């Protein structure tokens, strides 16, 4: 049974209690019913409660002519409540799903606007949670997807919080009517070609006619699944801790895991651990498209399989799996002249090289492996570079990126590889700081 609307302020305060020490609360304000009620509640609570600074954020998608009048409506509402408003215009990238594209643009604006120790509040409610559960169920989502929208999550340097997930749409409508609030009716909310609108207007009325408590029980199921996902996350952390051994090449700054530890797990635990590890790096494929992981895991001999994912690639080398993205997916090939070896040299898309100690006389060149390189080592004579890299267990994907220093056609040093990166008698070493641009983290 719905609770009275006059109980909403105390419930809202209880839900927001963990966030009372935030620097600011920003309300995602579309001007619709849900966000209008949330803004009104908070603005009036701020008169009697010590709350973080309130402000509103309106995202203008520009998808329909009617929306051009919405920023002015939002401004008038905020002015009446004494709350500042920021209007952000976004470009929606049209694709297969306009709903998804608009959501991505909106959350991109939220991410940009939320500063450190700030909280962005959105007004999704219990009915939205039930719709999300059914929508994802029809798309074949797993436990994580079926756990619905989380009450809170990290958003850039701040947090996103949904304080109305235990409130029904009917309660919000009652509050709005009681307080004579005005709000925007988005015409697109009636367009049943959009999946969520179809569920809201066509499916849920039928469900609730037969099962009046359907929304409540579905939201309860989402909460159970959220708890189950928490347990899966705990298991993933245990399994990843076992696979997070120290590597001789941690200095590359690339995420990696020990393959043998993962392979010893059941197939389900492998997928669970990898999904948890990769979640911050790339969108994951659905359960029918994990053959890339199996091919990588089961490869034998000298094979160097690659599993290509949305934002990068998973490589296997030297008994580990490695995540590569950004400029690591390219292969530097240009020759770079190093006229003053006493000064660090920036390499195009490949970090920085520098000498410590007394740098060798120039002019020098930085080149990359083409095959057939030979290097002279004290007491060993001339040795094939490929064999030297094999001896030191250099991962295959790194070899084409290693800066090689030449002088007058002679290979002097290989940056970053112990035993090949210096001259003991000359008193110098060649250091390489690999590229550390965005590795796909989000």
Automatic annotation (TrEMBL):
InterPro entries: Lysidine-tRNA-synth_C, Rossmann-like_a/b/a_fold, TilS/TtcA_N, tRNA_Ile_lys_synt, tRNA_Ile_lys_synt_N, tRNA_Ile_lys_synt_subst-bd. Ligates lysine onto the cytidine present at position 34 of the AUA codon-specific tRNA(Ile) that contains the anticodon CAU, in an ATP-dependent manner. Cytidine is converted to lysidine, thus changing the amino acid specificity of the tRNA from methionine to isoleucine. GO terms for biological process: tRNA modification. It comes from the Bacteria. CDD domains: TilS_N. The keyword Cytoplasm applies. Its main location: cytoplasm. Keywords: ATP-binding, Cytoplasm, Ligase, Nucleotide-binding, tRNA processing. ATP binds at residues 30-35. Pfam families: ATP_bind_3, TilS, TilS_C. It is an enzyme of class 6 (ligase). Residues 364-432 form the Lysidine-tRNA(Ile) synthetase C-terminal domain. It catalyses: cytidine(34) in tRNA(Ile2) + L-lysine + ATP = lysidine(34) in tRNA(Ile2) + AMP + diphosphate + H(+). One of its GO terms (molecular function) is ATP binding. This is tRNA(Ile)-lysidine synthase. Its EC number is 6.3.4.19.
């Amino acid at each position: 049974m719905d609770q009275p609307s006059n109980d909403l302020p105390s419930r809202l305060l209880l839900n927001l209690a963990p966030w009372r020490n935030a620097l600011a609360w920003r309300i995602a304000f579309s001007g619709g019913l849900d966000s209008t009620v949330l803004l009104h509640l908070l603005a009036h609570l701020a008169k009697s409660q010590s709350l973080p600074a309130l402000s509103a954020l309106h995202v203008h998608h520009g998808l329909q002519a009617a929306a051009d009048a919405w920023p002015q409506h939002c401004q008038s509402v905020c002015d009446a409540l004494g709350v500042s408003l920021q209007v952000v215009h976004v470009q929606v990238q049209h694709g297969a799903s306009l709903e998804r594209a608009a959501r991505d643009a909106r959350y991109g604006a939220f991410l940009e606007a939320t500063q450190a120790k700030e909280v962005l509040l959105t007004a999704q409610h219990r009915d939205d949670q039930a719709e999300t559960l059914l929508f994802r169920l029809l798309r074949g989502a797993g436990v994580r997807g079926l756990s619905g929208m989380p009450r809170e999550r990290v958003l850039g340097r701040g947090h996103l919080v949904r304080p109305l997930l235990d409130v029904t749409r009917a309660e919000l409508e009652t509050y709005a009517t009681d307080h004579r609030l005005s709000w925007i009716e988005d015409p697109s909310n009636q367009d049943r070609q959009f999946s969520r609108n179809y569920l809201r207007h066509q499916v849920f009325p039928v469900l609730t006619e037969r099962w009046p408590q359907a929304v409540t029980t579905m939201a309860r199921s989402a909460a159970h699944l959220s708890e189950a996902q928490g347990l899966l996350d705990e298991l993933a952390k245990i399994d990843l801790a076992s696979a997070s051994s120290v590597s001789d090449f941690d200095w590359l700054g690339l995420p990696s895991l020990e393959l043998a530890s993962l392979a010893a797990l059941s197939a389900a635990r492998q997928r669970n651990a990898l999904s948890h590890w990769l979640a911050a790096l790339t969108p994951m494929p659905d359960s029918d498209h994990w053959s890339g992981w199996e091919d990588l895991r089961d490869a034998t001999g000298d094979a160097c399989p690659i599993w290509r994912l949305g934002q990068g690639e998973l490589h296997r080398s030297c008994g580990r799996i490695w995540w590569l993205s950004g400029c690591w997916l390219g292969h530097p090939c240009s020759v770079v002249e190093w006229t003053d070896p006493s000064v660090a040299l920036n390499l195009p898309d490949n970090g920085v090289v520098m000498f410590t100690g007394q740098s060798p006389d120039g002019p020098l060149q930085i080149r990359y492996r083409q095959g057939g390189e030979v290097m002279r080592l004290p007491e060993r004579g001339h040795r094939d570079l490929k064999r030297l890299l094999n001896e030191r267990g250099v991962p295959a994907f790194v070899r084409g990126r290693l800066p090689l220093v030449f002088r007058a056609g002679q290979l002097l040093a290989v940056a970053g590889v112990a035993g090949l990166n210096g001259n003991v008698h000359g008193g110098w070493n060649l250091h390489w700081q690999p590229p550390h641009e965005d590795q796909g983290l989000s």
